[in-house]
Amino acid sequence: MIEQTVIDAGNEDRVAALRADYDALGAHLDRRGISIDAIRDKVATYGVAVPSWGVGTGGTRFARFPGTGEPRGIFDKLDDCGVIQQLTRATPTVSLHIPWDKAPAADLKAKADELGLGFDAMNSNTFQDQPDQPLSYRYGSLSHTDKATRQQAIEHNLECIEIGQGIGSKALTIWIGDGSNFPGQTDLTAQFERYLDSAKAIYAQLPDDWRLFTEHKMYEPAFYSTVVQDWGTNYLIAKELGDRAHCLVDLGHHAPNTNIEMIVARLIQFGKLGGFHFNDSKYGDDDLDTGSIDPFRLFLVFNELVAAEGKPGFDPAHMLDQSHNVTDPIESLMSSANEVRRAYAQALLVDRTALAGFQQDNDAMMAAGTLKQAFRTDVEPILAMARLDNGGAIDPIATYRAAGYRAKVSAERPAVSGAGGGIV
Amino acid sequence: MIEQTVIDAGNEDRVAALRADYDALGAHLDRRGISIDAIRDKVATYGVAVPSWGVGTGGTRFARFPGTGEPRGIFDKLDDCGVIQQLTRATPTVSLHIPWDKAPAADLKAKADELGLGFDAMNSNTFQDQPDQPLSYRYGSLSHTDKATRQQAIEHNLECIEIGQGIGSKALTIWIGDGSNFPGQTDLTAQFERYLDSAKAIYAQLPDDWRLFTEHKMYEPAFYSTVVQDWGTNYLIAKELGDRAHCLVDLGHHAPNTNIEMIVARLIQFGKLGGFHFNDSKYGDDDLDTGSIDPFRLFLVFNELVAAEGKPGFDPAHMLDQSHNVTDPIESLMSSANEVRRAYAQALLVDRTALAGFQQDNDAMMAAGTLKQAFRTDVEPILAMARLDNGGAIDPIATYRAAGYRAKVSAERPAVSGAGGGIV
Amino acid sequence: MIEQTVIDAGNEDRVAALRADYDALGAHLDRRGISIDAIRDKVATYGVAVPSWGVGTGGTRFARFPGTGEPRGIFDKLDDCGVIQQLTRATPTVSLHIPWDKAPAADLKAKADELGLGFDAMNSNTFQDQPDQPLSYRYGSLSHTDKATRQQAIEHNLECIEIGQGIGSKALTIWIGDGSNFPGQTDLTAQFERYLDSAKAIYAQLPDDWRLFTEHKMYEPAFYSTVVQDWGTNYLIAKELGDRAHCLVDLGHHAPNTNIEMIVARLIQFGKLGGFHFNDSKYGDDDLDTGSIDPFRLFLVFNELVAAEGKPGFDPAHMLDQSHNVTDPIESLMSSANEVRRAYAQALLVDRTALAGFQQDNDAMMAAGTLKQAFRTDVEPILAMARLDNGGAIDPIATYRAAGYRAKVSAERPAVSGAGGGIV
Amino acid sequence: MIEQTVIDAGNEDRVAALRADYDALGAHLDRRGISIDAIRDKVATYGVAVPSWGVGTGGTRFARFPGTGEPRGIFDKLDDCGVIQQLTRATPTVSLHIPWDKAPAADLKAKADELGLGFDAMNSNTFQDQPDQPLSYRYGSLSHTDKATRQQAIEHNLECIEIGQGIGSKALTIWIGDGSNFPGQTDLTAQFERYLDSAKAIYAQLPDDWRLFTEHKMYEPAFYSTVVQDWGTNYLIAKELGDRAHCLVDLGHHAPNTNIEMIVARLIQFGKLGGFHFNDSKYGDDDLDTGSIDPFRLFLVFNELVAAEGKPGFDPAHMLDQSHNVTDPIESLMSSANEVRRAYAQALLVDRTALAGFQQDNDAMMAAGTLKQAFRTDVEPILAMARLDNGGAIDPIATYRAAGYRAKVSAERPAVSGAGGGIV
């Protein structure tokens, strides 16, 4: 963890400017009929989960360039997640990935308690082969043509639930890479039937107070067809399984040009939005930092979420899911948690009464302007104040750097050599 | 109609070569365990509807360059459709578009009977304003914020059904342009709710022996959001409406890179495939001639259709829907009808028993090869023989040109001046 | 024109809030080491041309829904452009389109002088056939296989130059729709050679103080291939022609996912950036309002432009090019001019010294953060103050509505009936 | 190598059917005025290089599932390449990748001679860090901000040339992953200037009888910008470097919907087409088997190549570049070599005199039909006969399986455990 004196020193340097900015914004919002403190309070309670694997350096199929101080295992990862939460106060939970993060439940809970963290959704892995795994997922997992392989994948998911129950998780997220690389390689229909059968077997064992999230993705690692290729198929799954099954939306898993906020709206409308894997993308599943490529799109997603607040059953789970190849992962996750909160804050500023009126009147210019006015408002003072008020850092990245955390853990954690990606 | 002597003369010139090709292919297919005559017989019964508007020259928003002999109205259009059917024997029905094709039912039927044509699905139009139309569709039709405008659009669809009943049609196809051009312009959820309400009002009046086809499209004419934007939303509509509501798939209405055959498979699997608007596209809804850009994709769609043959309730409607900007529309439609049959014939050649075995064994190489072998077989002799046997032309385009049909109708139908597209 | 009293009244209502916002932003920017007045002064001199055709309602190939008070000709259009300039003080010039805007030069100049407007680049039209035009552009214009048709298109462009010389224009913009709809329809190489020959013939007649802008576009109205399909081909043209030939970038003319700011950077680097047609797009050449879909992308383009300021020969032309289907065109153009200035102002806020340092150190997090900080600054007070200081409106749209301009011209200009798009 | 008796036995089983098919096709082509033997002879001399790394199983960033009998090093790889050439007679050369394939030149040559193989272009690798490499490529290589890192990358390329000279290679292919993941991370212009400087340093050392191929790619491994992002930038590189610098086209490296054959035509027209990396793609750089997704696109590329045959300086290099994740790599490469030849054979069948006439007359229907007729001709008998005549297998895959080669090498080569992809 970062020493409190470092945080305090950083905040002391910045607090006067922050108060000036906050007051000025407050006065401006007051003229728009908005209470800045009310927005700050809502933002302060908004948390997004950090994926345990996110604190390690990512890679591509071509190469992986590890940074220094890479976490050696789940307990190092939790330490890193603790720092993110300490400075941002925006990431109170961690999402584990099995088998990467397997450890005794008591140890996990103790460590998390110590760091002030909780556990979010569990993530299963049937897209890789593990050492000593009897059957390979080369040709699929939950939708494999071989029943025994499917059963192995089902049991792995059940094990994830069991581990999750031990640490207080309440959801299982399933993402698989099943699909095909050639037209004809699979019977598209039979493959989906097998998937549904496997998913039903998992759902049948889901604890009553758990939710099951399934995630669609257009392509990669399968490059001709993917079993759960889009929200249409994802919806069919959630519908077939039952009320506790919901669809997870990853912002990078769609076809080019897709209107993602519309998918979000549809899933909300039909009661099947499970939550999000936040990141950003320009080309495919780029897993770039949230809000780094198209911040307006992120805002439009949150515009739908804020509009749906209070709707019965509306309770999406939020998680970051990024691959950090050229930055310090802790910095990227802190920055991204802030970007998620920024979009949320901006969406809270939308004058929804005025908007509804413009929509009813087909006054496209004023309706669009209403959204743009909210989006262009610089809400950084609100975000910073929410952090400060909760014991975090006004400027998390500067504070993190000042604390020398990366250098410190680099001294403790052995260097990892650069591994090639999948192609060698 | 084309004089029979012209057809006969053209066939006479070509029949020897055709028989040689047919026999050689027959011998080859025989070695693959396939009866060429059985394939020819199936192909011969396969028909695809021609859209009445397809026989006129299309255009873009930039310009329209009319050809000569443009049909002046529905009866000229039917004449042109009659020629297509006469030469190809592949297009026994015509699909009307209201109000463009409004005429007394008796007259329509008499003309069609005379030409040996029947009527396919009816198409409504609420994407344009008609003279004397009380309320504008500028901001939408079935999903408009104004109830009276929605009601006007509903009633137009009901009128289409009524007209269709008079001429023996058994289906209504709804495509609308409703959507928005700005983020915020519409409430995405409320707009879809209004759409569903309107669609239900139409469905409630659907005759028992009719089907309702709804068509999705990613974009255009709306450029930020479209109410029925993809198959996921289209499925929800069909599901909400009832058993006689099905989804229509237009090959050019999808996001870039979309696996269309997979959408076809999913809709079949869940009992909601209504049929197709065939065309081809490279960029967007280009409405190019079927099979002209990606013939393998067309084959893969038919591979799913042939695999589903005989499945209970499986009865998709097939129609061409193209915009002919640089060709004689009659030639394009004849050629495209042939391309549809080509894909069907190729798909019939797939060794499905072998394929299923390779799929079960995850032998991607042989499975893919099984499809490719069928695709690369040159089935033109089968298609030509099916035409010849049914009284059509071995080479429809050459025969059409030899007959001088375009010159003849150009003399009768006044020239149309080049109108600008939507932008002027 | 709008009465000054209406403008004054609108400004009076808003000036106190504006001064408060401006002062607060000034204080904030001062803490970042930036003089708000200096930014305002740069912004105030930044102008973007309005296309004459932009003040009319646009359309799609499916339909056109005219608004009220549609301009009847170039003089009405100039009136509308005058209002846009009057209220925004950001659009001092108009770009004409021939033959739509043909009129005696003296009359055009007199009208423009009266309205305080100048003339920007001339636009030729060889993508439509005009009444009495001897040869059709159905199969192409500057790249047509027929020499006489090419010559007709060349002469039209020369006429545009001549007209432009009469009214003080200094540039010709060429956009053509030439291409093909079928693989094989054209010889891709020969077609481009013909294009180059025609372009050279035009360039040979270009006055010494003129520039020639060529515009690329991926597709539409040609749907298989387009002669000038991308910036690579566009660059080759400009290179082949000579020093006064440059490439025009339209933000909606690229392949999905294209990094447009990188194209801008390359063209600047190689001395061939001619300028822009500003608009926004989600799918294709949607011609939506600038900044309405992806404002961050617009900012990134301006980030390259500001970085290149002062580079020898760097002098891009800026024009809006949008299609207004659901808004009052005057409102959209005022809003879009403001959005262009917004991106410019944001780009001026980038701390380029800090950025260069982060780039040199490969500190991606801080480099990206430097851009984001500039982008998220709400510069609206700067834009509004620049308008106010120059006699424009603090809130142009509200002032325009208050003035009742549309109602006034609707009373004078006859209603236009809804024409169908290209498909009917 | 495969035992000749196995090849002979396989051919014996198939030769009668082949002769029947060949004769029937010959008779058919004769009616079209084409000599089948002339086509076969041209096809027989057409070779495509195999990449050394292609014989190993590929992977994605998520996982790699190795097959059995994975080659342990370059000599095993050459053995596998030898089998591909032995059975297909279409892959006479191998393209090496340094440092993966480093070995004494004499040993490489001896082994290649023994297998009847030659060496094609050399491939450098500055997209990965190698053990003991002093400076990391994490932030770039030839375009890195650090001069010493650039120099290291330059020297690696020079070493590749040196190695290549020892084994008879005549070309160097450069593909780098340099780019950025965040807007602002790099100065797009300065980065390209550094790239050009480095490339010039390599070019300066290029032997007189060598060519330098540079390869563009839209994205991956960089996900916001890539230095050599498209053919426009690639052309600028080749132009800046000099006459022996050419552009390499990989079929999967383009934006969605890109008309690739047009890029090929442009590069030929301006003398800068270096050659190809053949594969197929549906979404991104999927590296699927050539012709497996869009065989018509491959044909259209070859249509341009055949049209350019004989043009001065036209001499493109052909190589397969695929990632084999679900097939035996040897089978995929044999199949893909055949697909390349198939497209070549089909393109040779195009009646170019007729085509030119239709193009001149703007007869799009007949022009397109001319291409389609060539494409749909089943040329497999020609390809098989070319193999048979040269000592290869009529059915390479069946013969390869019958020979039990994979089982044999699996016994000799130790099993490789499934490694995770870049993300773990």
TrEMBL record, chains A, B, C, D:
Question: Where does the source fall among the domains of life?
Answer: Bacteria
What is the organism field in this record? Answer: Psychromarinibacter halotolerans
Question: Which lineage is the organism of this entry classified under, starting from the top rank?
Answer: Bacteria, Pseudomonadati, Pseudomonadota, Alphaproteobacteria, Rhodobacterales
Positions of transmembrane segments: none
Q: Which Gene3D superfamilies match?
A: Divalent-metal-dependent TIM barrel enzymes
Question: What is the name listed in the Swiss-Prot or TrEMBL entry for this protein?
Answer: L-rhamnose catabolism isomerase
**Cited InterPro entries:** L-rhamnose_isomerase, L_rhamnose_iso, Xyl_isomerase-like_sf, Xyl_isomerase-like_TIM-brl
Under Gene Ontology molecular function, one entry of this record is: isomerase activity
Kindly give the Pfam families that the UniProt entry links to this protein: AP_endonuc_2 (PF01261)
Please list the residue ranges annotated as the Xylose isomerase-like TIM barrel domain.
93-287
Keywords assigned by UniProt?
Isomerase, Manganese, Metal-binding
